[in-house]
Amino acid sequence: MKCPVCRSENADTAHFCAECGAPIRGHDPASKGFSPGPHDPPRPVVTETMATVQKELTTGSTFAGRYQVIEELGHGGMGRVYKIFDTKTKEKIALKLIKPEISSDGEAIERFDNELRLARRISHRNVCRMYDLGDDNGTHYITMEYVSGEDLKSVLRMMGQMSAGKTVYIARQISEGLAEAHRLGVVHRDLKPQNIMIDREGNVRIMDFGIARSLKMKGLTGAGVVIGTPEYMSPEQMEAKEADARSDIYSLGVILYEMVTGKLPFEGETFVAIALKQKTETPRNPMDLNPQLPGELERLILRCLERDREKRFQGVDAILEELDKVEKGVTTTEKVLPTVPSTSRQITVSFSPKKIVVPALIAIAVIAAGIGLWRLFLRRDAGPATGGKPSLAVLPFENRNPEGDSADLCRETMIGIYDKMTHLGMFD
């Protein structure tokens, strides 16, 4: 289902757009039949200006005199995102084309530029680098690091409920990126699975630092109106209060809850319904939905989701310490993250000799066993052999693969072939 504001695709059951947070499925607060109470928190508002058609770039075209468009990666509340080739730096980067209604607001662009100045200070392996805010004939755009992979939301749709090991593996990287940003005084304010990219090697990158705050601008929303995705927003953000590092920690708790249970802690038909549940209900214990979950990880998640931010972890460093404790009880096999499936956006190819050597050895074993069986059937059909017993010659060979496990596999494979042929009576 498409969002009426940014035209992003959403699940059929969604009530708010995953990209811009606007109500969908007829749940617009301004629509007929919507009656908020006098104490309801501020609500997202869809205005006519938000429906303005945005300029689109075509594949192969050149934008701003230096950016060659490779393909469109997606679009959301801010605008369209493209994978482009920068002819000046000779690198592939991402370019976000800002919507006209935002570009036309000078105050908003100035605020956005200030936010980017802070976000550019973050240099960390788990944070997507923000490069620059540019202007081409009145069309503003952001350039940023290009990350080949899938966002965490897509990974969750493919995998469903995650094991504790995989959750800790991802949570640690998110936390380390957040810790560096918070150390520099930068708060994300819109942390959600859609803003977390995972590349083919399982490396995590947080995207769009500073953008959420910049979206609170004249012409799009009124004073005190909330911008964000309700399901991942902290209670203080739902009440239009100032967000701080602990707000990001709450959002991280929602993400972790969704990873281990496959569900969100609070869901509702409207923005107000979600806010009311936050105020009056406590999340269902994750272990009720995932009995295999370690108790330490459940306690970590629930503390992140404390309604009162004074009761949450006061810093991400404390979360990293707790993750260390959880990790000690997790088996190594649980920590392996499945390879992200290839898409048109992914062009990196990795090579490992083991990927060829191991299948080749298995194929040789199967062929040898087949030949042995064939010879056995021929001997039985022809009657007793006139000569002596058949013999198996095992010639010495040199293993040229430096990985020790391949050498073990060679030896075990040959022994297995010999045992199998002996069992069939070939060396009686």
Condensed summary:
The protein has 428 residues and is α+β, with helices and mostly antiparallel strands.
Write the layout of secondary structure elements.
Layout: E1 62-63, E2 67-75, E3 79-86, E4 91-98, H1 100-103, H2 106-119, E5 130-136, E6 139-145, E7 149-151, H3 152-159, H4 164-183, E8 196-199, E9 204-206, H5 211-214, H6 235-238, H7 245-261, H8 271-280, H9 286-289, H10 295-304, H11 316-328, H12 354-382, H13 404-423
Antiparallel strand pairs: 1-2, 2-3, 3-4, 4-6, 5-6, 7-8, 8-9
Please tag this protein with its features.
428 residues, alpha+beta, 13 helices, 9 strands, 12% strand, globular
How do the strands of the widest beta sheet line up side by side? 1-2-3-4-6-5
Report the order of strands and helices. EEEEHHEEEHHEEHHHHHHHHH
Taking the sheet with the most strands, its summary is: 6 strands, antiparallel
Contiguous helical run count: 13
From the alpha carbons, calculate the radius of gyration and give it in angstroms: 28 Å
Describe this structure in words.
- This protein has 428 residues and is an alpha+beta fold.
- The chain contains 13 helices and nine strands.
- The chain has helices spanning 100-103, 106-119, 152-159, 164-183, 211-214, 235-238, 245-261, 271-280, 286-289, 295-304, 316-328, 354-382, 404-423, and strands at residues 62-63, 67-75, 79-86, 91-98, 130-136, 139-145, 149-151, 196-199, 204-206.
- The protein has a six-stranded antiparallel sheet with strand order 1-2-3-4-6-5. It has a three-stranded antiparallel sheet with strand order 7-8-9.
- β5 and β6 (139-145) form a beta hairpin.
- α4 runs antiparallel to α7 (245-261), α4 packs antiparallel against α11 and α7 (245-261) crosses α10.
- The termini are far apart.
